Amino acid sequence: MKICCISSKQEAFDAIEMGAVAVGLVGEMPSGPGVISDEEISEIAKVVPPPIGTFLLTSKTLAREIIEHHVKVNTNTIQIVDELKERNYSEIRDALPNIKLVQVIHVTDEKSVDEAIEISDLVDAILLDSGNPNLVVKELGGTGRRHDWRLSRKIVESIKKPVFLAGGLKAENVREAIETVQPFGLDLCSGVRTDGKLDKRKLEEFFSEIEKI
Hints:
This protein is of the alpha/beta class. Helix content is 38%, strand content 19%. It has one domain: TIM Barrel, CATH 3.20.20. Strand 3, helix 3 and strand 4 form a beta-alpha-beta unit.
């Protein structure tokens, strides 16, 4: 379970206390919730205890820019939310050999399946979300809506790397999401928030539903 859009040390501690094994820290984005400064990301990442994952969500599309972004914040994982131009993941790995790479695939149609298969060999994990990077103002996550989970299941069945599922997840549909997609992990943002703040009651309800499965 990864809780995304963490905005403070306290939210990170609350998420971990409830059972999160990773927290998402959102850098500059063209749209969507949860954006905090690189300084705040760095401060939160410093206090999160191992082995909890600290994910930098970066919208940079060039390897050198992603490397520069990470150097500012020092998380243990980079979540690339847009397409990496030139697909030169090796440049990032050479510069940051101990950092995990997670590529977001925005599931829109069958082409998303092919994209996930192609990229899966180059990264440590795939995260399936409901954004649309082809809009004039790109949607790169945090939409609060679900996509076609049948396509997500197809991706899970087609690749060997761990797959996280994001997009519109909440207590009311988590059972269906898990049964339909069979993901390695889940990624939550808006579904466990109220007025933009992490809601411990919604977190409890979500984890309670998972325990029933």
